[in-house]
């Protein structure tokens, strides 16, 4: 798999040279930064916590939260002197999922693969330096299948999902991301982590996928889905096992790449029918 120098990926969007030069709307960017501060485990935040997470001043946060309350994006809880996300955010999330043709195509075949091979199957996309699960099915011997709530975030640098995504970036965007990650992981084994990322990128180019084990006794493999007209998505499979990564790779490479090929073929057929 080769980098495409004519364009690069930022978040969910393919950018060509010369694009994106309009003057940024700083107020909008800051408002979005406030909303990004909320995530699972941080459902209630005060102005001070939001300021710390966003790097914005408390006075700026105060102005932004007031506007976000007025637009329904945030709700204020006087008793706790804190904010929580408004129902409008959930409505937007459901609209995103409902409008995703990739999810509609991928979900049934992901479930089928999870049950048939007794593995976990997930689909994710990048958001900053994290990957966000759009869908995830976790095989469970006792209950056959359980679903992890979409929207869960995992670190890009540590995971097969994130590293497979990094492999799709053009050299300049890839180096910029590594610099940002190096700052974030400073003093926490960055040299080793960087070598693992670079090896994963080589693996994606040569084999189409990469392997990682960032949680105890869990081995995961991922491959990027680059479908015309859509941002980069990443498909992964994983198992809880005591086997080494080489053994798991030999067992799961076939199912992963077959699943990827099926999703991409069905997407091409759907796009052809809609044309």
TrEMBL record:
An annotated GO BP: negative regulation of DNA-templated transcription
Domain HTH iclR-type: 25-87
GO MF entry, a single one: DNA binding
SUPFAM superfamilies the UniProt entry points to: GAF domain-like, Winged helix' DNA-binding domain
PANTHER family assigned: HELIX-TURN-HELIX TRANSCRIPTIONAL REGULATOR, ICLR FAMILY, TRANSCRIPTIONAL REGULATORY PROTEIN
Nucleotidyltransferase recorded as keyword: no
Superkingdom assignment: Bacteria
UniProt keyword Ribonucleoprotein, yes or no: no
Pfam families tied to this protein: HTH_IclR, IclR_C
InterPro entries the UniProt entry points to: GAF-like_dom_sf, HTH_MetabolicPath_Reg, Tscrpt_reg_IclR_C, Tscrpt_reg_IclR_N, WH-like_DNA-bd_sf, WH_DNA-bd_sf
Keywords noted in UniProt: DNA-binding, Transcription, Transcription regulation
Disordered as annotated region, ranges: 1-24
Domain IclR-ED: 81-275
Protein name, UniProt field: IclR family transcriptional regulator
Membrane-spanning ranges: none
């Amino acid at each position: 798999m080769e980098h495409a120098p004519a364009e690069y990926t930022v978040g969910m969007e393919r950018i060509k040279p010369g694009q994106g030069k309009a003057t940024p709307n700083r107020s909008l960017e800051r408002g979005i930064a406030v909303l990004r501060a909320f995530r699972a485990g941080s459902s209630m935040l005060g102005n001070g916590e939001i300021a710390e997470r966003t790097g914005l001043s408390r006075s700026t946060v105060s102005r932004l939260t007031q506007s976000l309350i007025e637009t329904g994006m945030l709700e204020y809880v006087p008793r706790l002197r804190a904010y929580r996300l408004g129902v409008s955010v959930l409505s937007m999330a459901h609209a995103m999922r409902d409008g995703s043709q990739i999810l509609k195509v991928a979900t049934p075949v992901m479930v089928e693969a999870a049950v048939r091979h007794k593995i976990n199957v997930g689909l994710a996309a990048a958001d900053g330096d994290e990957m966000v699960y759009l869908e995830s099915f976790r095989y469970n011997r006792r209950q056959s299948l359980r679903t992890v709530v979409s929207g869960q975030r995992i670190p890009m640098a540590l995971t097969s999902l994130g590293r497979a995504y990094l492999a799709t970036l053009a050299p300049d965007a890839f180096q910029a991301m590594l610099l940002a990650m190096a700052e974030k992981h400073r003093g926490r084994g960055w040299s080793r982590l960087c070598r693992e990322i670079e090896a994963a990128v080589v693996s994606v180019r040569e084999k189409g996928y990469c392997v990682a084990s960032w949680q105890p006794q869990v081995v995961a493999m991922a491959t990027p889905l680059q479908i015309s007209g859509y941002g980069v998505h990443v498909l992964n499979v994983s198992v809880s096992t005591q086997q080494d990564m080489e053994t798991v790779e030999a067992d799961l490479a076939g199912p992963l790449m077959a699943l990827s090929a099926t999703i991409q073929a069905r997407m091409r057929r759907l796009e052809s029918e809609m044309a």
